[in-house]
């Protein structure tokens, strides 16, 4: 069963950036796109479990800070080696200036 979790304020995330969100023993990354949309993925790289929150966000992509693997944060698709396993993605919504994630 899924539920909507209040993750952060929309103002906490600059355009083309992300914040780390920890909930119930899991880590997530919440992104704000150049088009002012919000997305959420697992917060650890699928290659070596490094926190993506230290990575570079640009043009709908997150680059892992350890080995520079790249994912499309909208779909979770692994785009550049060494990553080859996609990230899991989660639905988001914004209500009253708050970002909610469906977990």
The CATH homologous superfamily is named: Rieske [2Fe-2S] iron-sulphur domain
On the 0 to 100 scale, the average pLDDT is 97
Structurally, the number of domains stands at: 1
Number of alpha- plus pi-helical segments: 0
Give me the Rg, rounded: 13 Å
The largest sheet is: 4 strands, antiparallel
Q: Give me the oligomer status.
A: single chain
CATH class call: Mainly Beta
CATH topology: Rieske Iron-sulfur Protein
Strand content: over 45%
Molecular shape? globular
Low-confidence stretches: none
Shape-level CATH architecture: 3-layer Sandwich
The strand order across the widest sheet is 2-3-4-9
Describe this structure in words.
It comes from Mesorhizobium ventifaucium. Residues 5-101 form the Rieske domain. InterPro entries: MocE_2FeS (IPR012747), Rieske_2Fe-2S (IPR017941), Rieske_2Fe-2S_sf (IPR036922). Belongs to the bacterial ring-hydroxylating dioxygenase ferredoxin component family. Its cofactor is [2Fe-2S] cluster. This protein is 0% helix and 47% strand. The strands form 3 sheets. Strands 2-3-4-9 form a 4-stranded antiparallel β-sheet, with no helix packed on it. It has a single domain, classed as Rieske Iron-sulfur Protein (3-layer Sandwich). The model has no long low-confidence stretch (mean pLDDT 97). It has strands at residues 4-9, 17-23, 26-32, 38-42, 56-58, 61-63, 70-72, 78-80, 89-90, 92-95, 98-102. It is mostly beta strands. The chain has no helices and 11 strands.
Give the SSE map.
Blueprint: E1 4-9, E2 17-23, E3 26-32, E4 38-42, E5 56-58, E6 61-63, E7 70-72, E8 78-80, E9 89-90, E10 92-95, E11 98-102
Antiparallel strand pairs: 1-11, 2-3, 3-4, 4-9, 5-6, 6-7, 7-8, 10-11
């Amino acid at each position: 069963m899924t539920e909507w979790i209040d993750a952060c304020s929309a103002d906490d995330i600059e355009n083309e950036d992300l914040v780390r969100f920890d909930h119930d023993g899991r880590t997530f990354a919440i992104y704000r796109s150049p088009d002012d949309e919000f997305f959420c993925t697992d917060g650890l790289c699928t290659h070596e479990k490094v926190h993506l929150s230290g990575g570079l966000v640009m043009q709908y992509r997150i680059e892992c800070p350890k080995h520079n693997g790249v994912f499309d944060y909208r779909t979770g698709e692994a785009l550049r080696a060494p990553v080859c396993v996609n990230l899991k993605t989660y639905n988001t919504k914004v209500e009253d200036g708050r970002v909610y994630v469906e977990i």
